[in-house]
Amino acid sequence: MNTKKINIAIDGPSGAGKSTIAKILARELGFIYVDTGAMYRSIGLYMLRNGVDSTDLPAVQAALQGIEINIAYVDGAQHIYLNGEDVSELIRTEAVSKAASAFSAIPEVRAFLLELQRGLAAKNSVIMDGRDIGTVILPNAEVKIFLTADDTARAERRYKELIEKGQEVTFESVLENIRQRDKNDSERALAPLKPAEDAILVDTTKLDLMQSVEAMKSVILEKMK
Ligand code: DC
User: I want to staple 40 with a disulfide (CB 3.0 to 4.6 A). Which of 32, 53, 100, 123 is the partner?
Assistant: First the structure.
């Protein structure tokens, strides 16, 4: 199965399970997992730290000049570096989620990350997850999946995850954050969240993690036959 380079694009809203499922599948298939949300989150973190407002375009453009993002794989897990600092954990907060969503609507920010993402897929067999992978970044991906679930199910999962990490959040605030991000991500003019025409839809609302992995695996294997 791995003799030829193959790219798998997974898009969908926050909390549908993209990264958890993609990580498991990447390990099983021997592919590299690329979490593009982590790249937008790193930019969000940088902008928050430097007090850059997403409506101030000249400031955003100037800030991008000072950002270098690298990814590396440690024991198969993606680590993301912002100007040399490993920010893999620091980017997993609700404040950074919001900032990532706001800055990701800016064309200059998307252009900044496009080459990095395409470059990784050109060199490796990847499972890449995000919002515009099947539509914009890898329109020729061999497999495209749009992974979704209803917003309450997604908020429940995200809430559990954040509580397990010791963050102080309420279910209502997590649901509100998810709804706001769904709206921002799907209504923006550039590269909005939407299924590619040739994407296969997988709905995980009623599936647990292993059932979701199996559903995805059968879609992938069917496409790769
Ligand atoms: O997948 P995530 O929740 O880590 O992504 C954080 C934000 O980044 C998300 O709200 C929208 C943005 N994003 C994007 O616009 N395009 C991508 N390919 C990945 C993420």
Answer: 100
